[in-house]
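Quick check before the chapter quiz. The format below is the same one you will see on the exam, so make sure you can read both the input and the output lines.
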Amino acid sequence: MNVHIILTSDKQEQMSTHYFVDTETTGLSSNEHVITEFACIKCVDGVEVDRLHLRVIPTEQELDRADKRALETHKFDLGLWNRTGLPSVEAANRIAAFLRGGHGTAIIAHNARFDIRFIRELLKNTNNVFLPTRCIDTISIAYSQFDSLGLKSMSFDSIRDFLGWSADGAHTAMKDAEDVMRLYQLLSPRPSASGGVIINEVTRVNHIYGVRL
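Here is the expected output.
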Protein backbone atom coordinates (compact mmCIF):
# COMPACT_ATOMS: atom_id res chain seq x y z
CA MET A 1 0.00 0.00 0.00
CA ASN A 2 1.27 3.46 -0.89
CA VAL A 3 0.39 6.41 1.33
CA HIS A 4 0.31 9.91 -0.12
CA ILE A 5 -0.20 13.15 1.80
CA ILE A 6 -2.07 15.92 0.02
CA LEU A 7 -2.23 19.28 1.75
CA THR A 8 -5.61 20.87 2.23
CA SER A 9 -6.77 24.31 3.26
CA ASP A 10 -7.15 25.38 6.88
CA LYS A 11 -10.88 25.84 6.44
CA GLN A 12 -12.77 23.95 9.12
CA GLU A 13 -14.94 21.21 7.67
CA GLN A 14 -18.50 20.60 8.77
CA MET A 15 -19.46 17.27 10.26
CA SER A 16 -20.30 14.57 7.74
CA THR A 17 -22.86 11.85 8.41
CA HIS A 18 -22.62 8.61 6.44
CA TYR A 19 -25.26 5.88 6.34
CA PHE A 20 -23.82 2.53 5.24
CA VAL A 21 -26.83 0.66 3.88
CA ASP A 22 -27.79 -2.75 2.59
CA THR A 23 -31.18 -4.15 1.67
CA GLU A 24 -32.30 -7.68 0.92
CA THR A 25 -35.35 -7.99 -1.32
CA THR A 26 -37.77 -10.45 -2.88
CA GLY A 27 -36.32 -9.75 -6.33
CA LEU A 28 -34.64 -7.20 -8.58
CA SER A 29 -37.57 -4.96 -9.58
CA SER A 30 -38.70 -2.27 -7.15
CA ASN A 31 -42.01 -2.18 -9.03
CA GLU A 32 -42.76 -5.83 -8.32
CA HIS A 33 -40.59 -6.77 -5.36
CA VAL A 34 -40.10 -5.47 -1.82
CA ILE A 35 -37.52 -5.11 0.93
CA THR A 36 -37.42 -8.00 3.36
CA GLU A 37 -34.35 -6.94 5.35
CA PHE A 38 -32.75 -3.55 5.99
CA ALA A 39 -29.51 -2.69 7.76
CA CYS A 40 -27.83 0.66 8.24
CA ILE A 41 -24.77 1.82 10.16
CA LYS A 42 -24.64 5.53 10.95
CA CYS A 43 -21.22 7.18 11.23
CA VAL A 44 -20.47 10.80 12.08
CA ASP A 45 -17.02 11.98 11.00
CA GLY A 46 -15.97 8.37 10.57
CA VAL A 47 -17.13 7.19 14.00
CA GLU A 48 -20.05 4.78 14.33
CA VAL A 49 -22.84 6.29 16.44
CA ASP A 50 -25.84 4.04 15.75
CA ARG A 51 -27.13 1.13 13.70
CA LEU A 52 -30.51 -0.21 12.66
CA HIS A 53 -31.44 -3.71 11.55
CA LEU A 54 -34.99 -4.68 10.59
CA ARG A 55 -36.72 -7.63 9.02
CA VAL A 56 -39.75 -6.56 7.00
CA ILE A 57 -42.63 -9.06 6.76
CA PRO A 58 -43.86 -9.42 3.16
CA THR A 59 -47.54 -9.93 2.48
CA GLU A 60 -48.86 -13.12 0.95
CA GLN A 61 -49.27 -11.33 -2.39
CA GLU A 62 -45.69 -10.02 -2.23
CA LEU A 63 -44.39 -13.53 -1.56
CA ASP A 64 -46.37 -14.84 -4.53
CA ARG A 65 -44.45 -12.34 -6.74
CA ALA A 66 -41.09 -13.12 -5.14
CA ASP A 67 -38.12 -14.52 -7.01
CA LYS A 68 -37.47 -17.78 -5.17
CA ARG A 69 -33.73 -17.56 -5.89
CA ALA A 70 -33.61 -14.17 -4.19
CA LEU A 71 -35.28 -15.57 -1.08
CA GLU A 72 -32.85 -18.49 -1.00
CA THR A 73 -29.82 -16.22 -1.47
CA HIS A 74 -30.54 -14.08 1.58
CA LYS A 75 -31.84 -16.99 3.65
CA PHE A 76 -35.43 -15.81 3.98
CA ASP A 77 -37.43 -17.87 6.48
CA LEU A 78 -41.10 -16.94 6.85
CA GLY A 79 -41.33 -18.33 10.38
CA LEU A 80 -38.35 -16.26 11.53
CA TRP A 81 -39.68 -13.15 9.80
CA ASN A 82 -43.13 -13.55 11.37
CA ARG A 83 -41.54 -13.90 14.82
CA THR A 84 -38.98 -11.11 14.60
CA GLY A 85 -40.01 -8.83 11.75
CA LEU A 86 -42.21 -5.76 11.35
CA PRO A 87 -45.07 -4.98 8.97
CA SER A 88 -43.95 -2.73 6.13
CA VAL A 89 -45.68 0.41 7.46
CA GLU A 90 -43.99 0.15 10.86
CA ALA A 91 -40.65 -0.70 9.28
CA ALA A 92 -40.95 2.29 6.93
CA ASN A 93 -41.53 4.65 9.85
CA ARG A 94 -38.50 3.27 11.70
CA ILE A 95 -36.29 3.61 8.63
CA ALA A 96 -37.55 7.13 7.86
CA ALA A 97 -36.78 8.23 11.42
CA PHE A 98 -33.28 6.75 11.21
CA LEU A 99 -32.32 8.20 7.82
CA ARG A 100 -32.28 11.91 8.44
CA GLY A 101 -31.05 13.83 5.44
CA GLY A 102 -29.72 17.32 4.92
CA HIS A 103 -26.37 18.97 4.36
CA GLY A 104 -23.36 16.74 4.92
CA THR A 105 -25.24 13.43 4.76
CA ALA A 106 -24.77 10.54 2.35
CA ILE A 107 -26.08 7.03 1.79
CA ILE A 108 -23.23 4.65 0.93
CA ALA A 109 -24.03 1.26 -0.57
CA HIS A 110 -22.78 -1.34 -3.04
CA ASN A 111 -24.84 -0.81 -6.20
CA ALA A 112 -26.43 2.10 -4.39
CA ARG A 113 -29.11 2.88 -6.98
CA PHE A 114 -30.64 -0.53 -6.35
CA ASP A 115 -30.98 0.07 -2.61
CA ILE A 116 -32.19 3.65 -3.06
CA ARG A 117 -34.97 2.59 -5.44
CA PHE A 118 -36.29 0.03 -2.95
CA ILE A 119 -35.97 2.39 0.02
CA ARG A 120 -37.88 5.14 -1.79
CA GLU A 121 -40.61 2.69 -2.74
CA LEU A 122 -40.95 1.52 0.87
CA LEU A 123 -41.02 5.08 2.19
CA LYS A 124 -43.24 6.65 -0.48
CA ASN A 125 -46.28 6.79 1.83
CA THR A 126 -44.32 7.98 4.85
CA ASN A 127 -44.66 11.63 5.85
CA ASN A 128 -41.71 13.97 6.37
CA VAL A 129 -39.05 11.80 4.80
CA PHE A 130 -35.70 13.58 4.42
CA LEU A 131 -33.32 11.16 2.78
CA PRO A 132 -29.61 11.95 2.77
CA THR A 133 -28.70 14.38 0.03
CA ARG A 134 -25.87 12.36 -1.52
CA CYS A 135 -25.39 8.81 -2.74
CA ILE A 136 -21.97 7.10 -2.89
CA ASP A 137 -21.55 3.77 -4.67
CA THR A 138 -18.71 1.55 -3.48
CA ILE A 139 -18.78 -0.30 -6.81
CA SER A 140 -17.32 2.82 -8.47
CA ILE A 141 -14.70 3.23 -5.75
CA ALA A 142 -13.70 -0.43 -6.02
CA TYR A 143 -13.50 -0.25 -9.80
CA SER A 144 -11.10 2.70 -9.62
CA GLN A 145 -8.54 0.52 -7.80
CA PHE A 146 -9.29 -3.13 -8.50
CA ASP A 147 -9.84 -3.08 -12.28
CA SER A 148 -6.17 -2.33 -12.92
CA LEU A 149 -5.23 -5.26 -10.64
CA GLY A 150 -7.23 -7.66 -12.80
CA LEU A 151 -10.54 -7.89 -10.94
CA LYS A 152 -13.27 -7.55 -13.56
CA SER A 153 -16.37 -8.36 -11.50
CA MET A 154 -17.18 -5.80 -8.80
CA SER A 155 -19.81 -7.95 -7.11
CA PHE A 156 -19.30 -8.11 -3.36
CA ASP A 157 -18.71 -11.85 -3.57
CA SER A 158 -15.84 -11.21 -6.01
CA ILE A 159 -14.41 -8.39 -3.91
CA ARG A 160 -14.48 -10.46 -0.72
CA ASP A 161 -12.70 -13.29 -2.51
CA PHE A 162 -10.14 -10.85 -3.97
CA LEU A 163 -9.39 -9.29 -0.60
CA GLY A 164 -9.46 -12.54 1.33
CA TRP A 165 -12.43 -11.42 3.45
CA SER A 166 -14.76 -13.93 5.05
CA ALA A 167 -18.04 -14.58 3.25
CA ASP A 168 -19.73 -15.96 6.37
CA GLY A 169 -23.13 -14.30 6.61
CA ALA A 170 -22.90 -12.81 3.13
CA HIS A 171 -26.22 -11.70 1.61
CA THR A 172 -27.65 -10.86 4.98
CA ALA A 173 -28.24 -7.17 5.46
CA MET A 174 -26.06 -6.35 8.47
CA LYS A 175 -23.07 -8.38 7.28
CA ASP A 176 -23.22 -6.65 3.91
CA ALA A 177 -23.64 -3.19 5.47
CA GLU A 178 -20.61 -3.85 7.69
CA ASP A 179 -18.55 -4.86 4.67
CA VAL A 180 -19.72 -1.80 2.72
CA MET A 181 -18.37 0.34 5.56
CA ARG A 182 -15.15 -1.68 5.68
CA LEU A 183 -14.60 -1.33 1.92
CA TYR A 184 -15.34 2.39 1.95
CA GLN A 185 -12.93 2.99 4.81
CA LEU A 186 -10.25 0.91 3.10
CA LEU A 187 -10.37 2.73 -0.23
CA SER A 188 -11.42 6.28 0.63
CA PRO A 189 -9.24 9.24 1.63
CA ARG A 190 -9.22 10.07 5.31
CA PRO A 191 -8.01 13.07 7.34
CA SER A 192 -4.49 12.94 8.75
CA ALA A 193 -3.37 14.31 12.09
CA SER A 194 -1.36 16.98 10.28
CA GLY A 195 -4.44 18.41 8.62
CA GLY A 196 -3.81 16.80 5.25
CA VAL A 197 -5.45 13.84 3.57
CA ILE A 198 -4.22 10.24 3.53
CA ILE A 199 -5.05 8.35 0.36
CA ASN A 200 -4.76 4.57 0.28
CA GLU A 201 -3.77 2.89 -2.97
CA VAL A 202 -3.87 -0.90 -3.24
CA THR A 203 -0.95 -1.60 -5.57
CA ARG A 204 0.40 -5.12 -5.03
CA VAL A 205 -1.26 -8.49 -5.46
CA ASN A 206 -0.47 -10.73 -2.50
CA HIS A 207 -1.77 -13.97 -3.94
CA ILE A 208 -4.31 -15.11 -6.45
CA TYR A 209 -7.24 -14.42 -4.10
CA GLY A 210 -6.20 -11.20 -2.45
CA VAL A 211 -4.13 -8.08 -2.26
CA ARG A 212 -1.57 -6.97 0.29
CA LEU A 213 -3.10 -4.35 2.56
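If your answer matched, good. Confidence is low (pLDDT under 50) at residues 1-12, 204-213.
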